C-alpha cells in the first residue's frame, strides 16, 4: 500500500522543466494531505518550527506572496517579506549581494520573484538555503503550474489524456511555460491559442498544438486556462488594440459552449474582466479561479515541506 | 543456519479476541453516567486507524453506541523529521467532530518509545480541548523514552530494540496477526 517511497532530494524548486513526472506526483500527493490543515480550528502544524523563510520580491505580487507567507506560517516557519522597493536594492545593491547578506543571517529558504529570466537559478548557485522560484521574467512560475495541476487533478481525478487549452499571451507568460512543461509530462494534450504575435516561435517543439482561433481550440476542451493580458506590454504593439483582442480571444459564454459541458475555466489572476475573460465566465459555474487560490496554499506548503523538512545531513 | 526467528504473538483469532476485550474495557470504564455519549475514538494512521474502526463497529453492535471516529496522521508533528532519511508521505487527518469536552480514546497498533503518542496528543489538542485522552494499543512492547502508558493494552511483551514487532491488519496487509522478528 505504502510501497512507493520517493525521496525528494532537491535543494531548490527552480522550474517544472527539471522535474520528473514522479516528482510532480509526489508534490501533488503531499499537497493533498496539507489541504486539510487550512480548515482546522488551529490552522498550524509544527513541521517547520524553527525554520526561516524569506520572501524576496522584485516584482509586485499579492496572491503569490501572501500564499507563500500563509503556507510558511501554517507550517510554523518564521517569515520575512522583502519588497525590492523598500530595501537596499534601491541603493543599487546587486541581486547576489542582497542574497549573500540574507544568507549570512542563516535563513533556510528564499522565495524569489524577479523580472529577469534565470534570476532564481543564479541565486540557487550562490545560496546554501533552498530556493523557490516564484516567477522569473517570462521563464517559469513552478508553484502556479503545480497548483493548477493540483486543481485539475482534484476536479477531474486525473490529468492524463485531458484536453487542456491555454489561451492568451503565451509569449510573455511564465505560467503558460511552466504549465506546458508540467501538463505534457503528466500526459495531457496541451493546445495553445492566441494572436500569432503572442505565440512563441517554435512552440510546437514543446509538444503543444498551436491554434490561432479559440473556436477551433476550444472544441472538446476539458480545461481552459486564461492568462492575463499584460497591459503594461501593450505599448509594444503585439496586437492592434484591446478591442480587437477582446473580439477575437476573450473567453465568452458563447465560446465556452464549444468545450465539454463540464469544462473547467482557470486563470492565474489577476484577471482583467471583459478583456481576456468575460465576467459571466469568470464568476460562472465552470470557474475554479478561487479554488486555485485556496489550493495554492496547500501546494506551497507541500513544496516548502519537501524542500526543508529533512535537509540536515 | 536459521538466523531470523519469527514468533507469532497473536493469530487471526487472537487479534479479534484482543480487540473485543479492549472494546469491553473501554465500554466499562466510560459508561458510568451518560452511557458512551461523549466518547470518541481516534486512530493513528495507518494500522491504529484500522483498529479504531473495528472498535467503533464493536461498540455499535455490542453496546448500541454511535461513537464518532477520527483518523490522525501525525507526520507533521514528528520530532524526528530532520533526522530520518526519507520523509514519510503526508496524508490527511480526518477529525469530523468537535472534540472539546469529549473523552477521546486514542488508538495505535504498537506502543514503543511513546514518541508517536506524544505527537498524536499534540495534534489532538490543536483541534480542541478534550475532557480526557485515553490510550488503547494492541501491543505494548516496552522500551519507553517518554513518560507515557496505555490505559488499555492488548498484549504486553518485553522486547529489545533489535527486535521488530509487526502488526498486520486485514485492511492493509491481507490478514490479521502480530509477530515478533528476532535477528
Q: What is the N-to-C succession of helices and strands of chain A? A: HEHEHEHEHEHEEHEHHEHH
Q: How is the quaternary structure best described? A: heterodimer
Rg over CA atoms of chain A? 19 Å
Shape of chain A: globular
Structure classification of chain A: alpha/beta
Q: Which residue ranges of chain A are poorly predicted, with pLDDT under 50 across at least 5 consecutive positions?
A: none
Number of separate strands of chain A: 9
Cα-atom radius of gyration of chain B: 16 Å
Tell me the number of helical segments of chain B per DSSP (H or I, 4 or more residues long).
Answer: 4
Rounded mean pLDDT score of chain A: 91
Which sequence of strands runs across the widest sheet of chain A? 7-6-5-8-9
- Work out the count of structural domains of chain B: 1
The N- and C-terminal alpha carbons of chain B lie at a distance of 12 Å
Biggest interface and residues each:
A-B, 28 and 24 residues
Category by helix and strand content of chain B: alpha/beta
Summarize the biggest pleated sheet of chain A. Answer: 5 strands, parallel
EC number (chain B): 2.4.2.9
InterPro entries (chain B): PRTase-like, PRTase_dom, PyrR, PyrR_bifunctional
Family (chain B): Belongs to the purine/pyrimidine phosphoribosyltransferase family. PyrR subfamily.
GO molecular function, one term (chain B): uracil phosphoribosyltransferase activity
Descriptive notes:
- The complex is a heterodimer of chains A (313) and B (183).
- Chain A is an alpha/beta fold.
- Chain A has helices spanning 21-35, 63-74, 95-104, 119-126, 142-156, 174-185, 214-217, 242-249, 253-256, 279-282, 289-308, and strands at 52-57, 78-83, 109-114, 130-136, 163-167, 189-193, 209-211, 223-226, 264-266.
- In chain A, the strands form 2 sheets. In chain A, strands 7-6-5-8-9 form a 5-stranded parallel sheet.
- In chain A, helix 5 (142-156) crosses helix 11.
- Chain A starts with 20 loop residues before the first helix and ends in a 5-residue tail after the last helix.
- The mean pLDDT of chain A is 91.
- Chain B contains 4 helices and 8 strands.
- Chain B has a single domain, classed as Rossmann fold, CATH 3.40.50.2020.
- In chain B, strands 3-2-4-5-6 form a 5-stranded parallel sheet. Chain B has a 3-stranded antiparallel sheet with strand order 1-8-7.
- In chain B, strand 4, helix 3 and strand 5 (132-140) form a beta-alpha-beta unit.
- Chain B is of the alpha/beta class and 183 residues long.
- Classes of the chains: A alpha/beta (313), B alpha/beta (183).
- The interface between A and B is medium-sized, with 28 and 24 residues.
Amino acid at each position: 500500500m505504502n510501497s512507493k517511497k520517493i525521496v525528494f532530494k532537491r535543494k531548490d524548486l527552480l522550474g517544472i522543466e527539471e522535474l520528473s513526472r514522479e516528482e510532480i506526483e509526489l508534490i501533488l500527493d503531499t499537497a493533498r494531505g496539507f489541504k486539510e490543515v487550512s480548515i482546522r480550528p488551529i490552522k498550524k502544524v509544527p513541521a517547520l518550527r524553527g525554520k526561516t523563510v524569506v520572501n524576496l520580491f522584485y516584482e509586485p505580487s499579492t496572491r503569490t506572496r501572501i500564499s507563500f507567507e500563509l503556507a510558511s506560517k501554517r507550517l510554523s516557519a518564521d517569515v520575512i517579506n522583502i519588497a525590492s522597493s523598500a530595501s537596499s536594492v534601491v541603493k543599487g545593491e546587486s541581486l547576489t549581494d542582497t542574497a549573500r547578506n540574507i544568507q549570512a543571517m542563516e535563513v533556510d529558504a528564499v522565495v524569489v520573484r524577479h523580472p529577469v529570466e534565470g534570476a532564481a537559478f543564479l541565486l540557487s548557485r550562490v545560496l546554501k538555503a533552498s530556493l523557490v522560484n516564484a516567477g522569473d521574467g517570462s521563464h517559469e512560475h513552478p508553484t502556479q503550474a503545480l497548483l493548477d495541476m493540483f486543481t485539475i487533478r482534484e476536479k477531474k481525478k486525473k490529468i492524463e489524456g485531458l484536453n487542456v487549452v491555454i489561451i492568451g499571451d503565451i509569449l510573455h507568460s511564465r505560467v503558460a511555460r511552466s504549465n506546458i512543461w508540467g501538463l505534457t509530462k503528466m500526459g495531457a494534450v496541451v493546445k495553445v491559442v492566441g494572436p500569432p504575435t503572442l505565440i512563441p516561435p517554435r512552440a510546437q517543439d514543446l509538444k503543444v498544438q498551436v491554434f490561432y482561433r479559440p473556436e477551433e481550440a476550444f472544441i472538446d476542451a476539458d480545461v481552459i486556462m486564461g492568462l492575463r493580458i499584460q497591459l503594461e506590454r501593450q505599448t509594444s504593439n503585439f496586437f492592434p488594440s484591446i478591442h480587437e483582442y477582446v473580439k477575437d480571444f476573450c473567453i465568452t459564454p458563447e465560446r465556452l459552449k464549444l468545450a465539454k459541458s463540464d469544462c473547467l475555466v482557470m486563470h492565474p489572476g489577476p484577471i482583467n474582466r471583459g478583456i481576456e475573460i468575460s465576467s459571466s465566465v469568470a464568476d460562472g459555474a465552470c470557474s475554479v479561479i478561487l479554488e486555485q487560490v485556496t489550493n495554492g496554499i496547500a501546494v506551497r506548503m507541500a513544496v516548502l515541506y519537501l524542500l526543508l523538512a529533512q535537509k540536515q545531513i | 543456519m536459521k538466523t531470523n526467528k519469527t514468533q507469532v504473538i497473536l493469530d487471526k483469532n487472537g487479534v479479534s479476541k484482543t480487540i473485543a476485550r479492549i472494546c469491553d474495557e473501554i465500554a466499562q470504564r466510560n459508561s458510568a453516567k451518560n452511557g458512551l455519549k461523549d466518547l470518541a475514538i481516534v486512530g493513528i494512521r495507518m494500522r491504529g486507524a484500522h483498529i479504531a474502526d473495528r472498535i467503533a463497529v464493536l461498540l455499535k453492535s455490542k453496546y448500541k453506541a454511535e461513537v464518532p471516529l477520527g483518523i490522525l496522521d501525525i507526520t507533521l508533528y514528528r520530532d524526528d523529521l530532520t533526522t530520518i532519511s526519507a520523509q514519510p508521505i503526508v496524508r490527511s487527518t480526518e477529525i469530523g467532530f468537535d472534540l472539546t469536552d469529549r473523552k477521546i480514546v486514542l488508538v495505535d497498533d504498537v506502543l514503543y518509545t511513546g514518541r508517536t503518542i506524544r505527537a498524536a496528543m499534540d495534534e489532538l489538542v490543536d483541534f480542541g480541548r478534550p475532557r480526557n485522552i485515553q490510550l488503547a494499543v494492541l501491543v505494548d512492547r516496552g522500551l519507553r523514552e517518554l513518560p507515557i502508558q496505555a490505559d488499555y493494552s492488548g498484549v504486553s511483551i518485553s522486547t529489545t530494540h533489535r527486535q521488530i514487532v509487526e502488526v498486520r491488519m486485514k485492511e492493509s496487509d491481507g490478514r490479521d496477526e502480530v509477530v515478533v522478528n528476532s535477528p
